[in-house]
Amino acid sequence: MLDCGIHPGLEGMDALPYIDLIDPAEIDLLLISHFHLDHCGALPWFLQKTSFKGRTFMTHATKAIYRWLLSDYVKVSNISADDMLYTETDLEESMDKIETINFHEVKEVAGIKFWCYHAGHVLGAAMFMIEIAGVK
After folding, report:
1. CB atoms within 10 A of CB 103
2. In what order do the strands lie in the sheet with 107-109?
3. Beta pairing class for 107-109 and 55-59
4. Does the model's pTM come out above 0.90?
């Protein structure tokens, strides 16, 4: 799975990515390209409140900024507690489930080989090259 963001113009469950046709438990790998909310804003919810048991990767800089950006999002959102997708505790617990990858470092998970390049978009932003069964 590539990225796990929220829709910036919507709130609550409506802001989540549409995953109704997939089973999170069947996803082996989740790659996050960068820290903007539309790319990682649903990650604490996905990691803490779904059946996802795979591995999650992002760059070191993205992970550091993700922590502070999403903490700020939780604190300043004008959303009722009932409509919040996750809490500060969920965010903190998600940090333990996120692994980091260096640029040009090759990793392999469940037969999926991947590595990342500088995207140049924001600090830590990555473009991922993915290889499955020899096909990139």
Report:
1. 15
2. 107-109, 112-118, 126-132
3. unpaired
4. yes
> Does residue 118 contact residue 126 with C-beta atoms inside 8 Å?
yes
The pLDDT value recorded for residue 83 is 79
Task: Specify the pLDDT at position 133.
Answer: 97
Best CA proximity match to 126, nearest among 28, 39, 18: 39
Q: From the centroid of its chain, how far is CA 35?
A: 8
Strands (DSSP E) found in the chain: 29-31, 55-59, 98-101, 107-109, 112-118, 126-132
Q: How confident is the model at residue 108 (pLDDT cuts 50, 70, 90)?
A: very high
Cα 81 to Cα 58: distance, rounded to the nearest angstrom: 28
Q: What is the DSSP string of 10-37?
A: --GGGGS---TTS-GGG--EEE---SSH
Taking the domains of the chain in order of start, what are their residue ranges? 12-101
For 44-94, how does the pLDDT look when each residue is reduced to its tens digit (9 = 90+)? 999 999 999 999 999 999 999 999 999 998 988 877 777 789 999 999 999
Residue 61 neighbours by CB under 8 Å, 6+ apart: 123, 124
Distance CA 117, CA 103 (A): 5
